[in-house]
Amino acid sequence: MSVRVRTATPDDFVPVMRVLDGSLLDVEATTVEERIDRGAVLVAVADGDTAGRVVGTLVLDTLEPHPAAPRPEEQAPETRHVEAVAVHRRHRSAGVGTALVEAAAERCDYLTAEFREEVGPFYESLGFDVERGNSGRCHGMR
Questions:
Q1: How far apart, in whole angstroms, are the C-alpha atoms of residue 70 and residue 78?
Q2: What DSSP string describes 7-66?
Q3: Considering the entire predicted model, what is its pTM?
Q4: According to the model, what pLDDT value does residue 40 have?
Q5: DSSP-assigned letter for residue 108
Q6: How far is it between the farthest Cα atoms of the chain?
Q7: How far apart are CA 86 and CA 122, in angstroms?
Q8: How far, in Å, CA of 5 to CA of 75, rounded?
């Protein structure tokens, strides 16, 4: 399946929440709304779908505005955290999650994520260095 990834708009709020809820991910609605407003939510829509239905979403953390722009030599690499990535059940294993993570990776120097151990292979396939924790959770960085 070929998808187009774009930044979510306020009109995408309900479809984004449906995809997150359908994947049983616990992300607060107020957080999603705030992240959409700050341009930190990506959505995937199937190419050729004229209705633009959301088939996947990725929620990033938000960067705090820097009070004063640093000089280029002081600029630290930008790291963003994937708070949630979800794909509609009918579109899983079709490259939608990969497209979302790749689009997020284009926006920063490093991506981090915390996830259940069973999705570790997904993140490893995308180039994340994965560390398994004691609680069944994993941490990854790309």
A1: 13
A2: E--GGGHHHHHHHHHHTT----HHHHHHHHHTT-EEEEEETT-TT--EEEEEEE--PPPP
A3: 0.87
A4: 95
A5: S
A6: 47
A7: 12
A8: 28
Amino acid letter for position 80: R
CB atoms inside a 10 Å sphere around CB 81 = 16
Q: Are strands 137-141 and 79-87 parallel, antiparallel or unpaired?
A: unpaired
Q: What letter would DSSP give residue 77?
A: P
In one-letter notation, the amino acid at residue 96 is V
Structure tokens at 43: 């959505």
Residue-range domains of the chain with CATH: 3-63+73-109 (3.40.630.30)
Rounded CA-CA distance 56/97 in Å is: 7
C-beta separation of 126 from 96 below 8 A: no
Q: How far is CA 70 from CA 7, 35, 40, 73, 78, in A?
A: 27, 25, 22, 8, 13
CB atoms near residue 46 (< 10 Å): 19
Looking at the predicted structure, is the pLDDT value of residue 17 above 80?
yes
Higher pLDDT, 75 or 106: 106
Summarize pLDDT for 36-60 with one digit per residue, the tens: 999 999 999 988 777 789 999 999 9
CA–CA gap between residue 20 and residue 26 (Å, rounded) = 8
